[in-house]
Design a protein that fits this description.
Layout lengths: L1 E4 L10 E4 L9 E11 L1 H7 L8 E7 L3 E8 L12 E5 L4 E4 L5 E5 L3 E3 L6 H5 L2 H14 L6 E5 L4 H12 L3 E5 L5 H7 L2 E3 L5 H8 L4 E6 L5 H6 L2 E9 L11 E2 L6 H12 L7 E6 L3 H9 L6 E5 L1
Parallel strand pairs: 4-7, 10-11, 10-13, 11-12, 13-14, 14-15, 16-17
Antiparallel strand pairs: 1-2, 3-5, 3-8, 3-17, 5-6, 6-9
Helix pairs in contact: 3-4
The chain binds NADP nicotinamide-adenine-dinucleotide phosphate.
InterPro entries: ADH-like_N, ER, GroES-like_sf, NAD(P)-bd_dom_sf, Quin_OxRdtase/zeta-crystal_CS, YIM1/Zinc_Alcohol_DH_Fams
Pfam families: ADH_N, ADH_zinc_N_2
Protein name: NADP-dependent oxidoreductase
Length: 306
């Protein structure tokens, strides 16, 4: 099969299109013919070696954890799926090696669910990692109807899903973004505020009684700023900064989950959550897809078409 690979840590220049052996299904693993994958910031952080010590790496690495495609081969005991099923998934394994920027990927069944019927493969590939992160961090925070929720980096991959999921639960949502993304946030149902100096005062002006839940998808000083605008008993949950725990909050690392992917898919097919695809690249141009994500600004998920 053709795949994007790298054999040393480094800049996007280490990514190359190579021939690799086809993966085999394991006992609880199916082989998926990849139709699309998407880029998440963790892909280039792993490529730069930032997660050494968290996840073991086996070179050559095929990057990418998000996939949408069709089941091509089933494993010895995989009653969940049949050949021909259209699936999507967050195919993070326990080590870094065989990712989704390839024509085929071996995917443990716990990482997959049926693709939402209303989405194209490219849209579906944009969902799993970011959507699951939003879903799981909102569950962990206990967001419920009538609460005020502050979402940092609300226009990003994770934030745009979180805004919509929190709205579907009946929460009021305030979201941080740069001005060009404010109209986009209004369309998702959030009240936009500009991040940077003065953020705490701007949030207080919108929510004088404080926010019940703050969701940090931005990093930097978002946890510290959140702590200043929480209601008594309010919580901050971060996916970038474990100091959230020092404020009685949570730090979340997204886990593969078929059940959570099915729940997300139901929200999508019910029209409660929409998917914004930004740029789409061909597999051979995966390095440019990584570079686009590394700017850390913009709107919509970056998708790689296989
Ligand atoms: N722990 C986990 O399991 C987990 C899972 C997923 C992601 N993450 C991490 O969470 C972060 C967000 O991921 P993502 O996929 O949402 O990234 P992303 O889609 O690349 O985020 C880009 C967005 O971030 C916004 N942004 C940049 N700097 C900001 C700031 N200081 N304040 C507010 N918004 C800002 C940009 O808005 P503008 O264009 O308007 O500036 C842009 O819309 C990354 O650091 C990622 O590594 C962690």
């Amino acid at each position: 099969m053709r795949a994007i690979t790298y054999s040393q840590f480094g800049s996007a220049d280490v990514l190359e299109l190579t021939d690799q052996p086809d993966p085999h299904p394991g006992a609880d693993v199916v082989v998926v013919r990849v139709r699309a994958a998407s880029v998440n910031p963790v892909d280039w952080m792993v490529r730069q070696g930032y997660l050494e010590g968290v996840l073991d790496t086996q070179f050559p690495v095929v990057p990418g954890w998000d996939v949408a495609g069709v089941v091509e081969q089933v494993g010895l005991d995989t009653p969940e799926f049949r050949v021909g099923d259209e699936v999507y998934g967050y195919v993070r394994k326990d080590w870094v090696h065989g990712g989704t920027f390839a024509e085929l990927v071996a995917a443990p069944v716990r990482t997959l669910a049926r693709k939402p019927a209303s989405l194209s493969f490219e849209e579906a590939a944009a969902v799993p990692l970011a959507g699951l992160t939003a879903y799981q961090s909102i569950l962990r925070s206990g967001v419920r109807e009538g609460q005020t929720v502050l979402v940092h980096a609300a226009a990003g991959g994770v934030g745009s899903f979180a805004v919509q999921i929190a709205r579907s639960l009946g929460a009021r949502v305030i979201g941080t973004a740069s001005e060009p993304n404010h109209e986009y946030l209004r369309g998702l149902g959030a009240e936009p505020v500009t991040y940077g100096d003065g953020l705490v005062e701007r949030v207080r002006a919108l929510a004088p009684d404080g926010v019940d839940v703050a969701l940090d998808y931005a990093g930097g000083d978002a946890v510290a700023a959140s702590a200043q605008v929480l209601t008594p008993g309010g919580t901050v949950t971060s996916i970038t900064d474990a100091t959230a725990r020092e404020h009685g909050g949570h730090y979340v690392w997204v886990r593969p989950s078929s059940a959570d992917l099915e729940a997300l898919g139901a929200l999508i097919d019910a029209g409660k959550v929409s998917v914004e695809v930004g740029q789409v690249f061909d597999l051979a141009d995966a390095a440019d897809a990584h570079r686009a994500s590394e700017t850390r600004h913009g709107r919509g998920k970056i998708v790689v078409r296989v």
